[in-house]
């Protein structure tokens, strides 16, 4: 049974220590029983749920609420049965049966047979793609349009060879781009749609699902030119979610990826933190969405030593808000906890993260978390972060030297911050006569 988005949330909710209360694993989920008269993929609101074998009863979890369920034929990906469903009560049983595939696939097979039947003639004619690319088509023609098999050589140097229908690239084919990259797979009405393999110029390959030319957030395989391979549950500007990484030598490891990077290595701060009045706040998003990100990316990354994820947890626990516009962390299963906040900030600081070093400067500057105020210790941490180019820290160092009446040193640090567009430093330089 394939891993899916909603199962992953349920099975991994214990990644968040504060959300591991017994009996809450299925909160917000219903019991979904399905059957279809052909093998198909079940997709809920665009997210892959599971593969449904033909004429078998399958029981899975699904979220409460109104949804669009799509049943996509594995034999013919453009044959889709769509149902609007309503699952109002968590924990209840719901049944969805699909019996339309037999008729739809029979009609599809008639279309395929017609497509594969000999066209009226073979000729060379002008061809214009749906997105405007022009070229010369050579192949089967019916009613004056490409129909059957043929080849287009575009003015750009791109070449397509494969199936056509009603004048468009439609069906199986290969697009070889002028830069050496290649797409091999399905097209629908001139757009990459369905299953395909995209080979990059460096030899890396992506295999997964496409829609109108865009990679879809569905299970996929990314293979590097050196033979390493990642089978991942989703895609969001790169492999995203839980996956199995297989090295070229056959060794395997379960990993979690985020926007094309192993969470052990990626800096997550830019995805969740905005700087407001020198203090970090979690970017505003729905609680259930952020809870998913905590369980799926941030907690696992922090435990694997990702300093940016550790810093985010420090912000979340120290704020007691965590999400802009949300009063309290109860909605995402977390509570204000200074001990947890300090633990995660300290781990991030010890790992050399500039934002965490800057935070420790704030801690000693203001006497937070039970520490005594110590201006020299605060300056030490501010300098560590400032030397790594963090503009907020450079501004803080400028302030400290200004307080010491060392205006030349203060001006140097204010200018470094101002050169990065830091508004407070710009204000210091503009409005203070001692810094002229």
Q: Between the first and last Cα atoms, what is the distance in angstroms?
A: 69 Å
Which secondary-structure class do the elements indicate? Answer: alpha+beta
CATH class of the largest domain: Mainly Alpha
For the record, the count of structural domains works out to: 3
Query: Given the structure, what is the number of helices?
Result: 11
* Residue runs with pLDDT of under 50 for 5 or more positions: 1-25, 321-330
- Quote the average pLDDT: 83
Strand content: 25-35%
Gross geometry? extended
The Cα radius of gyration reads 28 Å
CATH homologous superfamily annotation of the largest domain: Tetratricopeptide repeat domain
Helix content: 25-40%
CATH topology of the largest domain: Serine Threonine Protein Phosphatase 5, Tetratricopeptide repeat
CATH architecture of the largest domain: Alpha Horseshoe
Total beta strands: 23
The main sheet comes to: 14 strands, antiparallel
């Amino acid at each position: 049974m394939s891993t899916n988005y909603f199962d992953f949330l349920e099975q991994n909710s214990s990644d968040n220590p504060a959300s591991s209360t017994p009996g809450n694993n299925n909160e917000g989920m219903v019991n979904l029983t399905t059957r279809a008269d052909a093998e198909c993929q079940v997709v809920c609101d665009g997210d892959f749920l599971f593969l449904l074998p033909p004429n078998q009863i399958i029981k899975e979890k699904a979220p409460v609420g109104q949804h669009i369920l799509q049943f996509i034929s594995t034999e013919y990906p453009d044959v889709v049965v769509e149902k609007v469903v309503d699952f109002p009560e968590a924990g209840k049983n719901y049944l969805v049966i699909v019996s339309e595939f037999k008729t739809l696939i029979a009609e599809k097979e008639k279309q395929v047979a017609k497509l594969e039947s000999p066209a009226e003639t073979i000729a060379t004619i002008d061809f214009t793609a749906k997105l405007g690319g022009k070229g010369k088509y050579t192949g089967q023609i019916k009613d004056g349009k490409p129909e059957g098999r043929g080849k287009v050589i575009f003015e750009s140097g791109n070449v397509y060879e494969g199936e056509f229908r009603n004048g468009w690239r439609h069906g199986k084919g290969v697009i070889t781009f002028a830069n050496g990259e290649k797409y091999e797979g399905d097209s629908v009405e001139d757009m990459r749609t369905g299953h395909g393999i995209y080979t990059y110029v460096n030899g890396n390959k992506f295999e997964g699902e496409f829609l109108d030319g865009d990679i879809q957030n569905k299970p996929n395989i990314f293979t590097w030119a050196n033979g390493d391979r990642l089978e991942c549950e989703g895609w969001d500007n790169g492999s995203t979610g839980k996956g199995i990484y297989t090295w070229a030598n056959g060794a395997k490891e379960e990993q979690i990826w985020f926007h094309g990077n192993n969470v052990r290595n990626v800096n997550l701060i830019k995805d969740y933190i905005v700087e407001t009045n020198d203090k970090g706040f979690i970017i505003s998003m729905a609680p259930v969405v952020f809870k998913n990100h905590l369980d799926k990316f941030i907690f696992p990354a922090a435990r694997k030593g990702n300093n940016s994820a550790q810093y985010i947890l420090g912000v979340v626990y120290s704020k007691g808000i965590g999400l802009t516009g949300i009063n309290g962390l109860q909605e995402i299963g977390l509570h204000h906890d200074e001990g947890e906040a300090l633990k995660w900030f300290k781990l991030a600081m010890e790992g050399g993260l500039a934002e965490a070093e800057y935070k420790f400067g704030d801690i000693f500057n203001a006497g937070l978390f039970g520490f005594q105020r110590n201006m020299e210790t605060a300056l030490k941490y501010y300098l560590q972060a400032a030397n790594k180019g963090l503009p907020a820290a450079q501004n803080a160092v400028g302030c400290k030297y200004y307080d010491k009446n060392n205006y030349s040193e203060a001006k140097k640090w204010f200018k470094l911050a101002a050169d990065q567009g830091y508004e407070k430093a710009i204000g210091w330089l503009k409005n203070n006569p001692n810094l002229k």
